[in-house]
Design a protein that fits this description.
By secondary structure, the protein is an alpha/beta fold. 47% of the residues lie in helices and 21% in strands.
Length: 589
């Protein structure tokens, strides 16, 4: 069965084309052919490329070299056979060099069929070789891409683990030691981390070597950090704040240390590295330390990828160390502040106690020795006593807040306390400081006795009453309601404080019990510390109760306190856990 073959004749003589068609048919081909004899026609024929080109050497307006040039220019792989009347050997060789597959003379056309078949087979071999090469290259690319992806995944996993280490503890010495063991062996054979102390000395925080046999050497280096002025490369980086990368160190280049360095502690002389990278730990344009990644085997070298990874590790490490040091400084500041508060509170309470004692003594003496003394004198002494008590309570409040902020629970002095009598007494004391706002206590029960800390509970009531008075317009009434409620099988004491004041913006209700927070419509208009409500919440919640607020701007506020009359295990658990919450439960009308 004849094999279809698309043929393009580049031939100006139709008769010669007919002879070639005959030979092709004789060789078992079924030619589908076209004939051209000009460059223009040749270019158009190539738009639908043939399977083989049979070209005469010379044409009146065209030649074979030009045809071969056009085929190469279009990057076509087409069997190209020259069929001509006469051709010299040198010309034939040049044609082959230019891309022709074969050549034959027109008086020997019997060889045309085998020549075409051979050219087609050669093309098929080239196609298969290209496919095999493309497959090989694609496989190499896929393997390289897979290896790159795996390496990138490993780098991400390393950074993720490093971040977990750096955020695992605020004890940055232990944190850095764990980090050094992570970096060696992943990034280096040995990792050293040094920190600059406040006096300018260098403290070696961590060192790790991947080879356990180097433990004694590492321990010795750990005990002996370099002097800041030595020629140790770590000291140099700490002085300059500039990284140092050496990718290859021949053995003969490691010289004995000079300038204040000992052979036993000089990092290059002791470890004999083949390569090292030392990066400064920098925060806010200040060098606080350095991380050294040292290679001691010739099979590894630092490269741009590992350098970039190390730079990111150094950046994260610097931030973690800075945060840990800031935390230490903050803790120290808090400790000093608490010591100051305790000291100043003690110093203030002593004279206040004396003032209060003298006021009470004078009250008794006036009543005993001068019964006819004016009411104004008695009232003045009572006011002195009340204000001294208030200042003492404020000092106690500061001490309580300091204890709570330090994570310590309040030591409640629980005793039977009547909430009704306590509310009435505190309201009477608060009423003495104003005549512009009426403070009215409505009691729904004759008494409500619970096992509470009377002093601290009085402070809660005083905070709530005084806030209500402070933020209420003149000639209005603050209503205090004391009642009892049964809920979930427990008996609760309820105290509500309602005012007709400026109210609290709804968006700020969840923050009103935070320390030092003041509502935006109160800050700057009325004096206050932002401590009273925070202290009140802590006291109430440690009693196992809750404190909530309902408010609308311009319509006043209602603070509601729930206290368990008889503590239950649930109440106790609430008291231990709730003070740790960021925000109390709140609701609005």
């Amino acid at each position: 069965m004849a094999v279809p073959l698309k043929v393009l004749f580049v031939e100006d003589r139709p008769s010669d084309a007919e002879l070639m068609l005959y030979e092709l048919r004789q060789a078992g081909f079924d030619p589908i052919w076209s004939r051209v004899d000009t460059e223009h026609a040749f270019r158009r024929a190539l738009e639908s490329p043939p399977e083989v080109i049979l070209a005469d050497y010379t044409l009146p307006q065209f030649n074979v070299f030009h045809a071969l040039e056009i085929v190469r220019g279009q990057e076509l792989d087409l069997p190209f056979i020259i069929v001509t009347g006469t051709i010299g050997e040198e010309v034939a060789v040049e044609c082959i060099k230019q891309g022709a597959d074969d050549y034959l003379l027109k008086d020997r056309l019997a060889r045309l069929g085998p020549a075409v078949r051979q050219a087609l087979e050669a093309k098929q071999a080239r196609v298969e070789r290209r496919k095999a090469e493309e497959t090989r290259i694609q496989l190499i690319r896929e393997q390289a891409a897979r290896a790159a992806a795996e390496a990138a995944q490993q780098r991400l996993a390393f950074l993720s683990e490093a971040s977990a280490v750096l955020t695992s503890s605020l004890d940055y010495q232990a944190m850095l030691q764990r980090l050094a063991h992570l970096a060696a062996p992943y990034l280096a054979d040995c990792c050293i981390i040094d920190i600059i102390q406040g006096d300018g000395s260098i403290r070696r925080m961590a060192i790790a070597h991947a080879d356990p046999e180097w433990k004694d050497v590492a321990d010795n280096l750990h005990r002996h950090p370099p002097r800041p002025d030595s020629d140790d490369p770590i000291a140099k980086v700490l002085r300059t704040g500039e990284p140092e990368l050496v990718t290859m160190i021949p053995e003969h280049r490691i010289e004995k240390p000079v300038n204040g360095s000992d052979e036993e502690t000089h990092v290059l002389y002791v470890l004999r590295p083949t390569s090292y990278l030392i990066l400064p730990l920098t925060v806010r344009d200040q060098t606080i330390g350095a991380i050294s990644l040292i290679l001691t085997t010739s099979s590894r070298q630092h490269n741009p990828v590992t350098v970039a990874l190390a730079e990111e590790l150094a950046r994260r490490s610097a931030t973690a160390v800075d945060n840990a040091r800031l935390y230490e400084q903050a803790q120290e500041a808090i400790r000093l502040r608490d010591e100051f508060l305790a000291s100043i509170s003690h110093d203030l309470k002593n004279p206040l106690g004396a003032i209060k004692g003298q006021a009470q003594l004078l009250q008794r003496r006036v009543k005993r020795e001068h019964p006819s003394a004016t009411e104004r004198l008695v009232k003045g002494l009572t006011t002195i006593d009340s204000l001294a008590s208030k200042m003492t309570a404020q000092i106690d409040e500061l001490l309580d807040l300091a204890s709570l902020q330090a994570g310590q629970q309040l030591e409640l002095n629980r005793q039977p306390t009547d909430l009704v009598a306590l509310a009435q007494r505190v309201a009477e004391e608060c009423q003495q400081i104003t005549e512009q706002v009426e403070l009215r206590v409505d009691v729904m029960v004759p008494e409500l006795v619970g096992n509470w800390d009377q002093v601290r509970l009085a402070r809660v009531l005083s905070n709530l009453f005084e806030n209500a008075i402070k933020y209420s317009p003149h000639q209005t009434t603050v209503t205090v309601v004391v009642k009892e409620e049964e809920r979930a099988g427990n008996t609760w004491a309820i105290l509500e404080v309602r005012d007709q004041g400026i109210g609290i913006p709804e968006s700020e209700l969840t923050r009103i019990f935070e320390r030092f927070y003041r509502a935006s419509n109160a800050a700057g208009h009325r004096k206050g510390t932002g401590l009273g409500l925070a202290s009140s919440r802590q006291i109430v919640e440690q009693h196992g109760g809750t404190i909530r607020v309902r408010s609308r701007t311009g319509e006043g506020s209602t603070f509601t306190v729930h206290l368990p009359i008889t503590p239950t295990p649930d109440n106790v658990e609430t008291a231990m856990l709730t003070p740790r919450a960021e925000h109390p439960s709140t609701s609005s009308d």
